[in-house]
Amino acid sequence: MITVKTILHKKKKGEKIVCLTAYDYITARILDDTGVHIILVGDSAANVFAGEKTTLPITMEEMLYHTKVVARGVKNSLIIADMPFLSYQVSIEMAVLNAGRFLQVGACGVKLEGGTPMIPTIKRLVELGIPVMGHLGLTPQSIHKFGGYKTQGVGEKDAARMMEDAKALEAAGCFSIVLEKIPSNLAKNISMAIGIPTIGIGAGPHCDGQVLVLYDILGLFEDFTPRFAKRYVDFAEQMRRAVGQYKEEVEKGTFPAAEHSVD
After folding, report:
1. Residue 226, pLDDT score
2. Less CB within 10 Å around the terminal CB: N or C of the chain?
3. Are 21 and 43 contacting, i.e. CB atoms less than 8 angstroms apart?
4. Where exactly does CATH 3.20.20.60 map onto the chain?
5. C-alpha pair distances (Å), 32 with each of 37, 45, 55, 98
6. Architecture of 4-232 per CATH?
7. What's the pTM?
8. Which residues are catalytic?
């Protein structure tokens, strides 16, 4: 079974870390079977599962449900749950309560967004034995602040600030940090400067691991495809063909056939 210590050890050995999102029992079980190291129950469920424009509307109760059903399908992977908007920013006490609820339904740790301002919260969670994954760069819960899904860490001042934030997150006790949509060289420099793993998404090849949204690599989410995502198969089109064939056979009366009857 993969633990936080397993993930930390992979960086020391120079082994890449594989992370994907999951939101339901069936896909979580399949990811676990393939040996994915980290399954992230992402607040991206707001977009790809619920059809929202941003991650902001998803609630604690919804994220707890997704985490609970994912946990039922996992035997080996490390399950990390995204803490949704306003579940940890209001107070340290609220963050502790909500993070603890994620562990109660099967998560092994939580992920929260932000740099230096989140240090006291992260320290308290870690003190209480709750593993924390940080998240720097394009943090989707701050989308209105950024004015869109723009590359972060561009320019010397912003790059230096992000480096400081990464070191602060490590010092606060984070076991890893997601680096989202930042220049490749900056991601490389951060990865070399800290002792905990970096998990890249749109941050180039030099991070210690990579994470993508499962529905993007499967071609199931068609509203938009990020440039940094690679589509490995077009499941949406395959589903259309399968459903279309089923519809045609039902309308023609060729399904169900004799072999599909219980007589």
Report:
1. 86
2. C
3. no
4. 4-232
5. 8, 19, 25, 25
6. Alpha-Beta Barrel (3.20)
7. 0.96
8. 180
